[in-house]
Structure formats: C-alpha cells, structure tokens
C-alpha cells in the first residue's frame, strides 16, 4: 500500500524508536540470582526465632547499627559510637543517607525502639539490658546507652552477627509486642522485599534497593559497603537436595546452600560450578532436652541420655566420613576458638550404652517412651533423628520418633505442655560456630529457666557467670569464666554437644564475590551471563 511521504516518515520514526527501546532493554537486562537456601522462608519477623533462614532474610531487608569485619573487629555500620571518659555511656550517631524502604528517614527513635524489642529475646541483649541503667534519645540522629559499670557489652551486642541479630526497624513496627510476629517488611537494608511475589514456604523475592547508600569502606565480613550488583534475588524452596542440584545443573539455580557430602561428586570437576565452605558458616550439632517435663526434669535421665549418645555416628550419617568434613568436639563453645576445653571429652564424644542403662536403672525408669522430634526437610537435620533414636534405644530408652518439617519443629519446641498435649522431650539442631563461640549470647548454654532457649534449663550460677563475662576486665578473665560455664553446662546437661561440621555451598561459576561472613548474603555479588 502506498503511504504519503509524511506517514512514511512517521512509521520510520516509530520503527527507530522501537529498535532503540529494544536495544536499551537488552543493554539493561535484569540480572537475577536464584538460590536454594537451607530452609524455606515461612515467616517475616527475624526477632521471633533463632532459625537461620530468618537471620538470612533479616540481612537482606534490614541493617544493623554495628557490624563485625572478617577479623571479628567491631565496625560502624548504620552508626558510629563514642564512649565517655568513665566508660559508662555510649553515644551512637546515625550516618547520613539512611532511609526506610518507604522513603522516610531512619531516626534514633526507631533504633531505640528496635533495641528495646530485640533485647527481650536475644541472650546477649538480655544481659545487656540487665546491665544498662538507661537508653535515651538525644536528637533525631543520636542516642545514648548508660551502664552502671564499665562494660563492652553494647558493642558486643549491637554487632552480634548471627542468632537473633539486632536488626533496626521503623519505630511503629518495633513497638509491636515481641509475642506478636510482625508482618511489615519495611527495612533500610540493601534489598527490598517483594511482598506481591511472596509464597510462604515456596518463594521469596528481593529487589535491589536503589535508594540504599552503602558505606564507603570495602566489604569485609558483615561490615563495610553493601553494594548490590544484581537486580533481583529469588529464594526458591526445594526440600530435596538432589532436586536442587539437578536444577542447578540445568541452569535454573545459581546457588545451593548446605549440600550433603555424598552429592558433591555430581559437580566435582565441572567448571560451571564451584564449592565454598566458609569457616564462619561451619556448625555445631547439639541435642536439647526438655527440663520442664518428665523424664528430663531429672538429672539422672539427662546424664543417661548424654551417656547414650556418641558424636561420630551422627556426623557420618550427616556429612559423610571424609576427614575434612567434620570433627568430634566436646567443648560447648567450640573447639576452634579461645574457649575450647576437653572437659569430660571422653564421656561426651563416645557413646556408653551400658552407663546409660545403669543410670536409668538408678533413676527407676519405667519404660515410658520419650518423644523425639525429627526435622525431615533439612539436609543437615534429617539424618540426625534416626541416629539419635537408635543410640538412645541402645542405651535403654524407649523412643517415639515424630517426623515433621522444620517449621513444625520450630513451632512445637516452644510448647512446655506434656507430650500428649503437644509438647516434646528431645530434639536436635545446629548452630553456626560464631554463635557457639559467644559465651554471653550462645543460646545453648543460657540457663535462666523460663527466659532460656527451648528446653528451659535452670542453672542460676550459669546466669551469674554470663553477666560476669560481660563485665570481665580482660581476656584471661573471660577465658576462665567461659570454662566455668562449660563445666556447669556439661555437669547439668544443659545441652549435649554432638560434633562440628562444614557447611558446603555449591555455586554457579557465573557468581563471584560472595562475602566470607557469618551468613550467606548477596551484596557485592556479581553474575555474568
């Protein structure tokens, strides 16, 4: 069809515009990282649980006042600090450019409210709160913490990298009672949460926060500049590890967290993938007993359980027999840090079923089964249940194993009711070594009864020592106190250490720059095509 000259020019102009637009889109193609994390994300409040998937979510969406670098040194993150000459008052000042995801500025009032909510549930925060005499807002960008005695607990607590990390939230959100999980996803961190795409337990999507102003310093551990170099990160749930690796080999997935040793041959030697095992993401296994319900309200039964359990069978079932994948360790604060000890090592590391049977006989065990919760959907936990159950049976216990997903374990372990009414007797889990190595904050040794972690051990002397550690004048004093806590924890069976293992991630060769830190984070990561 013949077109008038003017119409032909318009058509050509339109075609040029379309082509230029297409070229622009191609030049700015969206970069997406797809990751299979250690567990599905089913909740959105990083203060309600020590589950590491919530900690990981927190680092994507929120930020912290302080952070620790690769060497473990405390650094400014959202705020800098100054200490008064008498060592009693810390003044924290927010840096410029901090905004919530809705565009409003971060204020000191937000931070004070966030700390006041967090310190109710975190073990280090609880100790800090007891030592603190006042926390006051100075102006929009600064606030103070004052203590009755000189202590470094403020820096230790506010830079806490794992467990329940002290994430800052808007004041209106932080004022939510700690018993009520928050639903807001407004943070000030390097990513924004895409609520419209969220499918609990299935998918979580994080978008680059274009308004985030990183620090100027290079990234180091959890500190320094958090520079987002991709447009989107998708967490997709694949409970079966083989399915996750198959998806990775087909190009659907870029990162799989915590891959079992026996699956690594699938990617060994393949230049399209590499493995990484950051030391700070290694873990300690532990078994936890419920002190509020029979039979483990009785020390003899707790001692019998500890005697029945041995570390090596669990480690072999969990991560394989390779020497560099795991190690036995009797120290409650880990074997690689300054608080390592060999107290009762032989009794803790090796199973002694005959001693267990003797203790049960002394206690008058009536043969009533104990209920063991087994998480079946996490690669690091699923193998533990059958090993624990068999060792306990070998030691004279009758055991009922109740299999469930990790989310159900997390929900049920909060119950102090009898087993028949939804309670429990025993479960196992893992904690990353930075959490384990913190005598003030480690949930496994806190022993304040109702304020303790699930299992609720009650050993007042341990609580006194945790507070003393926070006020200790030097490293030698801290080491002495930590070893006292270790001995009390073992003698009272506050927890049963079950060895240490490496967490191995499989990563697409397209991804580079993952920070060596306490948690898997996605700032400073590039993805090539």
From TrEMBL:
Gene3D superfamilies recorded: Dipeptide-binding Protein, Domain 1 (3.90.76.10), Dipeptide-binding Protein, Domain 3 (3.10.105.10), Periplasmic binding protein-like II (3.40.190.10)
Domain of life of the organism encoding this protein: Bacteria
Segments passing through the bilayer: none
Record-linked InterPro entries: Peptide/Ni-bd (IPR030678), SBP_5 (IPR039424), SBP_5_CS (IPR023765), SBP_5_dom (IPR000914)
Signal peptide: 1-29
UniProtKB keywords: Plasmid, Signal
Cellular compartment(s): Periplasm
Keyword hit for RNA-binding: no
One Pfam family named in its UniProt record: SBP_bac_5
Signal in keyword set: yes
Domain Solute-binding protein family per the UniProt entry, residue ranges: 74-448
Protein family per UniProt: Belongs to the bacterial solute-binding protein 5 family.
Name of the molecule in the record: ABC transporter substrate-binding protein
Organism: Thioclava litoralis
Classification lineage: Bacteria, Pseudomonadati, Pseudomonadota, Alphaproteobacteria, Rhodobacterales
């Amino acid at each position: 069809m013949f077109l008038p000259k003017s119409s032909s020019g318009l058509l050509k102009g339109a075609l040029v515009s379309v082509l230029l637009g297409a070229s622009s889109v191609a030049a700015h193609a969206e970069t997406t990282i797809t990751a299979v994390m250690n567990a599905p994300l089913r909740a959105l409040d990083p203060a309600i649980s020590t589950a590491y998937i919530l900690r990981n979510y927190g680092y994507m969406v929120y930020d912290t006042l302080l952070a620790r670098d690769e060497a473990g040194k405390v650094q400014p993150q959202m705020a800098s600090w100054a200490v008064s000459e008498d060592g009693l008052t810390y003044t924290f000042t927010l840096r410029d450019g901090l905004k919530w995801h809705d565009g409003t500025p971060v204020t000191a009032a937000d931070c004070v409210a966030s700390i006041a909510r967090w310190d109710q549930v975190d073990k280090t925060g609880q100790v800090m709160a007891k030592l603190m005499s006042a926390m006051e807002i100075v102006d929009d960008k600064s606030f103070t913490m004052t203590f009755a005695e000189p202590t470094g607990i403020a820096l230790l607590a506010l830079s806490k990298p794992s467990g329940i990390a002290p994430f800052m939230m808007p004041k209106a959100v932080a004022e939510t009672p700690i018993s009520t999980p928050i639903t807001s996803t407004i943070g000030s961190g390097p990513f924004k949460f895409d609520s419209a795409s969220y499918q609990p337990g299935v998918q979580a999507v994080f978008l680059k926060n274009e308004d985030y102003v990183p620090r100027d310093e290079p990234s180091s551990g959890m500190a320094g500049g958090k520079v987002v170099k991709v447009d989107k990160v998708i967490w997709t749930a694949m409970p079966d590890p083989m399915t996750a690796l198959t998806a990775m080999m087909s190009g659907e997935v870029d990162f799989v967290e915590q891959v079992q040793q026996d699956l690594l041959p699938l990617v060994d030697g393949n230049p399209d993938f590499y493995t990484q095992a950051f030391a700070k993401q290694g873990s300690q296994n532990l078994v936890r007993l419920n002190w509020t319900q029979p039979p483990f309200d009785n020390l003899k039964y707790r001692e019998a359980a500890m005697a029945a359990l041995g570390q090596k069978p669990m480690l072999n079932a969990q991560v394989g027999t390779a020497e560099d994948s795991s190690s036995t360790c009797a120290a409650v604060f880990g074997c690689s840090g300054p608080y390592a000890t060999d107290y009762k090592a032989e009794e803790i590391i090796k199973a002694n079923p005959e001693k267990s049977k003797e203790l049960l006989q002394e206690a008058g065990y009536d043969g009533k089964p104990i209920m063991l919760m087994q998480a079946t959907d996490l690669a690091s936990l699923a193998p533990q249940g059958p090993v624990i159950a068999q060792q306990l049976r070998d030691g004279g216990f009758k055991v009922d194993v109740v299999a469930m997903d990790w989310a159900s374990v997390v929900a049920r372990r909060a119950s102090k009711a009898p087993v028949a009414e939804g309670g429990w007797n025993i479960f196992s889990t893992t904690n990353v070594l930075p959490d384990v190595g913190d005598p003030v904050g480690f949930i496994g040794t806190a022993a304040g009864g109702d304020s303790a972690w699930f299992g609720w051990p009650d050993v007042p002397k341990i609580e006194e020592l945790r507070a003393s550690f926070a006020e200790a004048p030097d490293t030698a004093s801290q080491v002495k106190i930590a070893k006292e806590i270790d001995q009390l924890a073992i003698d009272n069976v506050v927890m049963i250490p079950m060895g240490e293992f490496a967490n191995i991630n499989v990563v697409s060769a397209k991804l580079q720059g993952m920070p060596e830190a306490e948690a898997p984070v996605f700032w400073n990561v590039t993805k090539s095509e």
